[in-house]
């Protein structure tokens, strides 16, 4: 097996792993974001939100990154 075939195989495997992981990460991120917003009435979550005011913004940026990465991976697979 040549070096170029090995590299192509590695990228194909990395792409398939990314296509499996990205939707799961997006789902978990949306669940976490929902718990942060809807669970604010619980003392533990409201205290945590006061201690971490930028947490929701960071989760949204992370979700946007995951969606962008999965879109790029999907576009690569169709090329």
Describe the structure.
By secondary structure, this protein is mainly alpha-helical. It is 87% helix and 0% strand. The chain has 3 helices and no strands. The chain has helices at 3-38, 43-51, 55-78. Helix 1 (3-38) packs antiparallel against helix 3 (55-78). The longest helix is centred in the first third of the chain and has 36 residues, at 3-38. The chain is elongated. The model has no long low-confidence stretch (mean pLDDT 83).
Question: What is the secondary structure topology, with strand pairs?
Answer:
Blueprint (H helix, E strand, L loop, with lengths): L2 H36 L4 H9 L3 H24 L1
Helix pairs in contact: 1-3
**Which class do the helix and strand fractions yield?**
mainly alpha
What characterizes the major β-sheet?
A: none
Number of H- or I-type helical stretches? 3
SSE ordering: HHH
Number of strands: 0
Q: What ranges have pLDDT less than 50 throughout 5 or more consecutive residues?
A: none
User: What's the average pLDDT?
Assistant: 83
Strand content: under 5%
Distance between the termini: 24 Å
The helicity comes to over 70%
Radius of gyration: 18 Å
Summarize the structure.
This protein is an all-alpha fold and 79 residues long.
Task: Describe this protein with a few key phrases.
79 residues; 3 helices; elongated; single chain; mainly alpha
